[in-house]
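Service request form, structural biology core

Requester: graduate student, group of Dr. S.
Request type: structure prediction, single chain
Budget code: on file
Notes: please return the result as structure tokens.

Sequence provided:
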Amino acid sequence: MKTKLLILTFLIFCGFSSIAQFKSAKIGIDGLTCSMCSNSVEKLLLQLNFVESVKMDLNTNEAIVFFHKKYKTDFKKVSQKIYDSGFSVREISTSLNFDTINLEGNAFQINGDKFYILGEERSKLSGERSFRFLDKSLISKKEYSRWSYFIKENDKIHNEKQKAYHISL
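Core staff response, request fulfilled:
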């Protein structure tokens, strides 16, 4: 009986952890001018094991990146691939269902990474919500300069061993 209860508990928690996954992200990319540029970015992004597919749009200079469910998403690696291809990230945005997220003050965790919500009211955070990243290399330099003070203040309380992201809803 204890074994069945333990297995049932394990399956329930595995189900909850799989709910808090990133499905896709929209990435604004500065510097894309032609289909060859777009193609090179797409190929580099597809080298990441957690990237399932990429849809590039030269009209808006954006990419929609779709993620594999079974791999941990690393937005800093996505950004690095774009910089490696000779372009820069203007903005990365994604969404999560906050009904399945446990908020700890202004923070929550997904797959071992900590996410800090900056500059927003969090008391009514529920349902599917979009957010954008505020960290260096995940937004434009100009936008980062607006948020850098708040990020540095927040980092004073952050555990250095855990990867942290700063977001705005």
